[in-house]
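User: Can you recover a sequence for this backbone? Please restate the input before giving your answer.

Assistant: Of course. Working from this structure:
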């Protein structure tokens, strides 16, 4: 199948915004290749029924979080392709921009967080994480950037 797909959900009635996964798939019948591109981020309240990704909230419930959950101008982005003879999808170099730290800035240069909350930053926990999230270019906001990349809202949403 080829087309644009969108899945959006909200944690509950007192949650102020949706989590949005937008995906575009393609199929080239001549070369028998498939492609997929997807973005994830946060949107407005589900009551708006918009489905647009407004940005990323990396520290949604952690200490020091922004209680208003204002999205930063970032989004997760991943793309992959499947050639006619490939056994599995392949992510091209630079095709995965999904890493972030659970902090207000989406990055951390310190060991300031304890992933499993056991009181000790163990091996692999709290390691400095420079966010690799994608961001708008050319003066676009997140929604405009995703539209420029071909991720459009399905007509039925």
């Amino acid at each position: 199948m080829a087309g644009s797909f969108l899945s959006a959900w909200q944690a509950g009635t007192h949650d102020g915004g949706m989590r949005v996964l937008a995906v575009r798939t393609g199929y080239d019948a001549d070369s028998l290749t498939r492609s997929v591109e997807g973005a994830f981020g946060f949107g407005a309240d589900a009551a708006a029924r918009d489905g647009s990704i407004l940005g990323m909230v990396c520290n949604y419930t952690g200490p020091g979080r922004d209680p208003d959950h204002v999205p930063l101008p970032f989004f997760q982005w991943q793309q992959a392709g499947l050639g006619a003879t490939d056994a599995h999808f392949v992510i091209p170099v630079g095709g995965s921009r999904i890493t972030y730290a659970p902090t207000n800035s989406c990055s951390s240069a310190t060991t300031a967080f304890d992933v499993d909350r056991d009181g000790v930053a163990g091996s692999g926990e709290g390691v400095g994480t420079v966010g690799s999230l994608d961001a708008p270019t050319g003066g676009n906001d997140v929604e405009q950037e995703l539209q420029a990349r071909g991720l459009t809202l399905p007509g039925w949403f």
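That completes the design. The chain has one helix and five strands.
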